[in-house]
Design a protein that fits this description.
The protein has about 450 residues and is of the alpha/beta class. It is about 35% helix and about 25% strand. Helix 4 packs across helix 11, helix 4 crosses helix 12 and helix 16 runs parallel beside helix 17.
């Protein structure tokens, strides 16, 4: 198969596009929005972001070899003297999405799309790792899961790509319907529906409605939807989809999981049953939440024709995603870095994981605020107390405005807890108090920068 290219005809098909100097245009195989990454023959799309406006870097892109540029029609006068092909459009961000959709339709690759409230990045990594045992896989890198990141990932695939694994994120209505229309998935799944982004999506039904756009677009594309039968909201809506595979740890499903035990160092043993086949493995990553992520990944792998042997080989290559139940072992402590983000469900999962690690009896939980909960924030922080039971070996350390509500509830249950009004005070506690011989969990929403406390612990125990 020849190298994939964006042609002049493709550009003429962009909604609202007017093309200047078309005669000198040659098909391009590289599309960039970052002028620093432009190479000879690239198409540069000038996108206006929160911090930078790509139109300020058009000249830089041209000097670096851009063969053509996509600009906003309102900026046309500024670039009238440019001796390059100019594609003027009403909205360059929308045009970037349209170009990515054109590219997606040129790819000879299956597209697997993932969203959900918790675990989507870990699930994406597991899916990509398993499928790499059989296919040439391209996946979402870092946090490129929004209206810009999804097109970027699609455009990073080429003619050799056999499977494209895309993570779709959202915190506002309309984001996933937009990115799903660009990616047109062949397979899609929602890991779960929780209380994330309630500030913008109102309630769990709102969260489902937004994320289900990924499943609906897959159905329209004659693709297969994978249903987490253990999630009541997802399961209740499963009747809306005709081509589907169900998976879960409860009830009658196509791919059945069972947690059959835990290793001495806290890792989960999972059994998978599908049809007449059965296999069992101890996951190299921690937490029952990862067992659920694994079952989702296995369901995709089986649907795409991987053998039991290929799946078991792939499992050996799993590694924790940075900041997501990343267990670090030291001589005098075990530190669980789960600082990437937080929700009620993920806090529960992380505490469960901590309790299963028997290396040390003492348990310390360091918690920061959970964001984007809107008017329910105080109530949901209070309800975190249900996760904890009275234990003389447990202490809960909190920081942030909302975590004060949790501490008040914990004290009613006589659970040892300390709230720190200043981050510096918590930092000093973690540096100098007697916290050796403990399993220490650190967790909070992204904006709380809880990784700073992990760094303190790493320096102390290394």
């Amino acid at each position: 198969m020849g190298k994939l290219k964006i042609t002049l005809e493709d550009l003429f098909n962009l909604p609202s596009a007017v093309i200047y100097n078309p005669d000198g245009f040659k098909p391009v195989s590289n599309v960039e929005i970052d002028s620093r990454k432009v190479k000879k023959g690239s198409l540069f799309v000038a996108i206006k972001g929160e911090k930078f406006d790509g139109h300020d870097f058009v000249q830089t892109a041209v000097k670096s070899g851009a063969a053509a540029v996509v600009i906003n029609k309102k900026k046309l006068k500024k670039f009238s003297s440019l001796d390059k092909t100019i594609i003027a459009v009403d909205n360059t961000t929308a045009a970037f999405g349209d170009i990515a959709n054109i590219w997606r339709n040129k790819l000879n690759a299956k597209v697997v799309a993932i969203s959900g409230s918790n675990g989507k990045t870990s699930t994406k990594e597991m899916i990509a790792t398993l499928l790499s045992e059989k296919f040439n896989v391209v996946k979402t890198i870092a946090n490129n899961n929004n209206h810009i990141g999804v097109p970027l990932t699609i455009l990073s695939a080429d003619e050799k790509t056999e499977v494209l694994v895309l993570e779709h994120g959202t915190n506002h209505f309309g984001e996933i319907p937009y990115s799903a229309k660009i990616s047109q998935p062949d397979f899609a799944l929602l890991t779960n529906i929780g209380d994330s982004h309630l500030e913008f999506l109102n309630n769990r039904e709102g969260v489902y409605k937004e994320k289900a756009a990924l499943l609906i677009e897959t159905e329209l594309n004659n693709g297969t939807v994978l249903i987490n039968a253990d999630d009541p909201l997802i399961s209740n809506h499963s009747k809306n989809f005709s081509k589907k595979v169900t998976y879960g740890f409860k009830g009658k499903v196509d791919v059945k999981g069972k947690i059959v035990g835990t290793t001495d160092n806290g890792r989960t043993k999972v059994q998978v049953v599908y049809g007449k086949e059965k296999f069992e493995t101890a996951l190299p990553v921690y937490g029952e939440s990862n067992a659920k992520n694994f079952l989702a990944a296995v369901s995709i792998a089986l649907k795409l024709g991987l053998t039991k042997k290929q799946i078991l080989e792939g499992v050996k290559k799993f590694t924790p995603v940075h900041g997501r139940l990343d267990v670090k072992k030291y001589k005098k402590a075990v530190v669980i870095d789960d600082t990437y983000n937080a929700s009620h469900a993920s806090v529960k999962s992380a505490v469960d994981t901590m309790n299963k690690i028997k290396t040390f009896k003492n348990k310390i939980v360091v918690l920061g605020d959970i964001f984007e909960l809107g008017s329910k924030a105080a109530k949901l922080h209070k309800e975190l107390e249900s996760i904890f039971t009275l234990n003389k070996n447990l202490v809960v350390l909190t920081v942030g405005t909302m975590m004060q509500h949790l501490v008040k509830e914990l004290r009613k249950k006589n659970i040892r807890s300390i709230h720190f009004f200043l981050r510096e005070a918590l930092s000093l506690y973690l540096q100098y108090e007697e916290i050796e011989n403990s399993v220490i969990l650190v967790k909070g929403s992204r904006g709380m920068k809880m990784e700073e406390f992990v760094n303190i612990l790493e320096k102390r125990f290394e």
